[in-house]
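Technical note accompanying the year-one report. For the benefit of new consortium partners, we illustrate the data format agreed upon in the data management plan: each record pairs a sequence with a structure-token string. No post-processing was applied to the example shown here.
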Amino acid sequence: MSKLSQKENILVVIKKANGDIKQIKGHNLVTADGEEYYARLVIGEASNITTPFYLRLGSSTDAPTSDDTDITTYIDNTALVVDDGFPKRNYTNDNNSDGGVNVITYKISYDLGGLDVTGVSEGALTDDDSSPSKALNHWLFDQTFDVTTDDQLTVFINHSFVGV
């Protein structure tokens, strides 16, 4: 039997205009819809979640639950589709050290100047950018952060499956 790893599996990389990089981690909860999504993939059934997935960022610190279909408090203009070619298996680079053979990575990249937000504390991958009805997962970041127009934000979501 396998389950999703319990390690921190969300990684935010904020690259500042001066080249400095700040990393913030988080631990996500795969929702009931997300568990069904992965189960259907394994047996070749049609997906229960319409894709592509959209990252939505929020400002609540309410604990995620398995019944969540979105973040708790959406921050306007933060919804963005998962990067082309993702999800990928075994994706690692200098910024995403949590990728691996048994890891599915979703990557979301905001362009430099693409965001100007304060108080980001939560995120979710959802089925729609403006009116989600299902979420693959929902998480809280380890700390609240801000993104300015001088920053480039990249978010990695790593779902690893480990034997137990």
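Partners are asked to follow this layout when depositing records. The CA atoms of residues 5 and 139 lie 14 Å apart.
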